[in-house]
Design brief:
The protein has 125 residues and is of the alpha+beta class. It contains three helices and seven strands, in the order E-E-E-E-H-E-E-E-H-H. Strands 1, 2, 3, 4, 5, 6 and 7 form a seven-stranded mixed sheet that branches. A hairpin with a 5-residue loop joins strand 5 and strand 6. The model has no long low-confidence stretch (mean pLDDT 97). Bound molecules: 2'-deoxy-5-methylcytidine 5'-(tetrahydrogen triphosphate).
């Protein structure tokens, strides 16, 4: 599983989940499942095109691996916006947060451990 840290002008893009019910309403770094044969960057480019309607590039790791209960691993990558303005095509809402706001928002549990790593790159903390 791949998740994207898109940071522009010291703010991080967060997306509010709509499903499953236990995660609906919580905020996450957008991303999803890498398909067979895809690199992490391929998967991020496809997922963010589908979910946000944007083109991204890059893919430096940020934060630690998060083991999921089903045996998969969730990894966050810093990506750059190449074109487009993010739109919530698959989420309830999008939000750009600074370092202080990142501490106040209800993140999905799996993403919480990345907060200190993300904050280093954000304004206002
Ligand atoms: N997470 C998560 N944080 C995070 C992402 C992108 C995903 O904790 N930033 C978890 C949430 C789900 C699982 O990863 O338990 C699958 O995420 P999902 O539903 O966004 O990815 P899909 O739809 O590509 O994959 P499947 O639901 O597994 O088909």
């Amino acid at each position: 599983m791949v998740a994207a840290a898109i940071i522009v002008d010291g703010r991080l893009l967060l997306a509010q989940r709509t499903r499953p019910p236990e995660l609906a309403g919580l905020w996450e770094l957008p991303g999803g499942k890498a398909e067979a044969g895809e690199t992490a960057e391929d998967a991020l480019r496809r997922e963010l095109r589908e979910e946000l309607g944007v083109e991204v590039s890059g893919g430096d790791r940020i934060g630690d691996d998060v083991p999921l209960p089903d045996g998969r691993v969730l990894r966050a990558y810093r990506v750059e916006l190449v074109s487009g303005t993010p739109v919530a095509l698959d989420h309830a809402e999008l939000r750009w947060v600074d370092g202080r706001e990142l501490g106040d928002i209800d993140l999905v549990g799996n993403d919480r451990g990345w907060v200190p790593d993300l904050r280093v790159h954000l304004n206002g903390w």
